[in-house]
Amino acid sequence: MGRPSWAASHLNYERLWPNPTSPPGFLSSPVGADHTAQSRVLARPVMPYSPEADWWDLMRKIGAAVWSTGHAGRVIVEAGLLRPWIEFRGGIVYNDAKEGIDLGEACGLDVRLGAPVSADVDAVLARPDIDVVFYAGIGTPTETAAACLRANRAGKDAITISGLVHPRTILGAAAAAELDAGAQAAGQRILGTGFTDYLTVTLPLAAISNVLTYDEIRMERVADLTFWGHGILRDEGIGAPLEAAGPGFMMRNFLVETLSLVAESAGLELDEPVFESVPVLSDVRRERAGYVAEPGTICGHDRRVSANVRGGGRLVSTWRGRFDLQPDRDGMEGSAKVVIEGDPAFETIVRGDIFLDTYPPTGARVMAAVRPLMALAPGVHTIDEIPLRPVFR
């Protein structure tokens, strides 16, 4: 949906990223480009050249609002505070008691942003100084799509970590096409980044690009659930008896969506994916951050999605999550691995502090998507279309 031509993308990038090697006012463009049209999309004024000037600071700040100020909203704000080109100007909350307080306070941060929050969704979305809305609410895929489209119709781009990683899979082809049409009609964009998409989309695609043929592609993810919000842990059945195990709909959707997106980006057609979820009982007492899982209660899940590739081959995505994960005790550590049985055989693994808490890298990836998304044509987009350009400054 909405994949632009190179030339169109280039013109939009000139608006957002003037060539840093060229003085202001100089337009680097493809041969034969329409310089008149290009100058119309150039956001900054033509200014006299000064090598001492920091031209990144001359670029306009992007006004942002955060929709839902829970733990996910908090990490988005934390990531944005480290990007001087983002300026938070408002927030949307579900609790009337938070009406009018500062976004920093609403997110539980010891910082004042000068950005009031409100439960009046339309009032926040109507503000002309907000360019992008970060949606971090918990809801069904349909509810997430409706919220993003609502932001679009108010003239804002929408980026969500709450799904829409592969809209056609999670919404169905007809509903995804309707969402895309709505975004295009509004002249805005929608993107679902999901959680730590580098580990679930970008890393597998980078690995696949190194092989000529394959028989099976496996994506294996081990996650520490310690820093998940208590509400989500309860929904997952963590600390509860076996019969209270959560159905895993959220993780099922995420695994199926990312598997489908990897397949689509690699040009593969899949049979219907099969999802399996097995709750894991703890044999020790686990306690972290005020949450407890007693022996004999659920401490995590092993989940797997697999699908045959039409014409031959197989894609498998596994996710193993544990509350209070300790490698010596649990026999595994937070990691992401891609294994390809093919020609040549290929295996890559990522480890590190990124797995201690997956929320901060999720927030960082959201920030990395803001400017590239604005350079794309209006419509619904997927994370494989977004170039790796984090832009800290």
Would you write up a description of this structure?
This protein has 393 residues and is α/β, with parallel strands linked by helices. Helices cover 33% and strands 23% of the residues. The protein is built from 14 helices and 15 strands. It has helices at 6-16, 35-41, 55-58, 71-81, 103-106, 121-125, 141-153, 167-171, 173-186, 197-208, 230-236, 249-265, 327-330, 359-374; strands at residues 62-67, 86-92, 117-118, 132-135, 157-160, 189-192, 213-224, 274-281, 286-288, 291-293, 298-308, 314-322, 335-343, 346-351, 379-382. Helix 7 links the parallel strand 4 (132-135) and strand 5 (157-160). Helix 4 (71-81) crosses helix 14 (359-374), helix 7 (141-153) runs parallel beside helix 9 and helix 10 packs parallel to helix 12 (249-265). The longest helix is centred in the middle third of the chain and has 17 residues, at 249-265. The radius of gyration is 22 Å and the shape is globular. Mean pLDDT is 84; it is low at 2-58.
Helix percent reads 25-40%
The helix count comes to 14
Would you identify the CATH architecture of the largest domain? Answer: 3-Layer(aba) Sandwich
Estimated share of beta-strand residues: 15-25%
Form type: globular
Task: Count all strands and give the number.
Answer: 15
CATH class of the largest domain: Alpha Beta
Taking the alpha carbons of the first and last residues, their distance comes to 30 Å
Largest beta-sheet characterization: 7 strands, parallel
* SSE arrangement, N to C: HHHEHEHEHEHEHHEHEHHEEEEEHEEHE
Low-confidence stretches: 2-58
Strand order of the largest sheet: 3-2-1-4-5-6-15
Structural class: alpha/beta
The CATH superfamily of the largest domain is NAD(P)-binding Rossmann-like Domain
Average predicted confidence as pLDDT: 84
CATH-defined topology of the largest domain: Rossmann fold
Return Rg in Å.
22 Å
**Number of structurally distinct domains:** 3
